[in-house]
Amino acid sequence: MPPALHFDKGLANTIAAETSLSFIDGEKGVLEYVGIDIDSLARHSTFEETTFLLWHRRLPTSQELGEFERELHACAPLPPGVIDLLRGFPRSAPPMHALRTLVSALGLYDPESDDPSAEANARKAMRLVARTPGLIAAFDRHRKGKPIVQADPTTSIARDFLRMLNGVDPTPAMAHALDICLVLHADHGLNASTFGARVTIATLSDMYSAMATAVGTLKGPLHGGANEGVMHMLAEIGSVERVDAYVQDKLARKDKVMGFGHRVYKAYDPRATYLKTFAEKIAADTGNEKLYEMSKRIEAIMHDAVAAKGIYPNVDFYSATTYASLGLDLDLFTCLFAMSRMAGWTGHCIEQLDGNRLIRPHAEYTGPHGVPYVPVSDR
Ligand code: SDX
Description:
Layout: E1 22-25, E2 30-33, E3 36-37, H1 38-44, H2 47-56, H3 62-74, H4 80-87, H5 95-108, H6 118-143, H7 157-166, H8 172-185, H9 192-201, H10 207-218, H11 226-237, H12 243-252, H13 270-285, H14 289-306, H15 315-325, H16 333-353
Antiparallel strand pairs: 1-2, 2-3
The protein binds s-citryldethia Coenzyme A (SDX).
């Protein structure tokens, strides 16, 4: 007798995988990477160290971290063929479309792209995490008609991304701010884009195909695209005085307010807790106080209106103010999310292959049966 099937729309109540990368307690607002709470990692870790933690399930020794950073950063320079390719992209292309294409193109220049061994996948994960920042920066320089800045394999991912993007070294404070954002976004259980990556790799397809799936999935405004949606909302509102009417109108129309709500968190997203204090400081340091004040007012209105339904700010709400304060173009925000989550996506793919089973759920058929075929001449 086959096991009973049940329909779970959106898989909201389904456990579809086991993972030891990150743990979320949605009721208590807890996020841990391999058992270490996200607040400790944001205060003390770096993106490189967090990537090691996610891939190796433990923190590195000082010597291991140094070796890992050197190996990771050495992978950063882009294959020349990829740069040639992106020079042909339309300058008007949305950056997430460009990134989805470029992540896929990286596979064309990786001789190990179809090597399924754990060792080759580990090396591909390094290349993908190390090169994604350069892909984003190179496309942005191309679309602005500026010379492309090649990666400096001797410096941190956060610092070098801002250098490649802006053509000048960032301040240590800016580089540190971005590094913390990368730590906060690196992994988050079986979110839609991670699930998509696992579905792809579970067919024994390759890592680059899985990452193309993940980037394309993250792009959606219900997922990683929400940080750009928050910025559009702040621009549309324009001032603190207009917040109340705007939010109340959106709620009255049952529109979703970007940056709020979460499938798992029914409490404050712990990443938002950190990003809120961070956004306040960096907005003040960069003269963007209005963005923070508007965000704070939106949060207050939403709290009164929907906190009882378990709708709180999520990771995207205050990251928008942070990224804007870092001087990043609005349409690069989701690319930043992808740059960080590349660490989690690749880690989950490697985990999926350890004891892999094809991911193939059922669908409830709702169409007709026994329909006769009518020749086209009789239709
Ligand atoms: C990320 O999964 C992850 O871990 C994702 C992520 C990660 O790190 O990978 O955390 C990153 O994607 C964060 C979420 C970013 N998305 C947004 O900010 C978009 C806005 N949020 C919503 O679209 C929504 O909250 C979702 C999509 C995030 C979750 O939606 P669910 O779980 O499917 O819940 P739902 O849409 O069925 O809403 C339940 C109720 C509804 O009201 P009722 O019909 O029951 O009266 O809550 C309401 C919704 O209308 N609601 C909202 C709301 N989100 C839910 N109302 C207003 N504004 C919102 N943002």
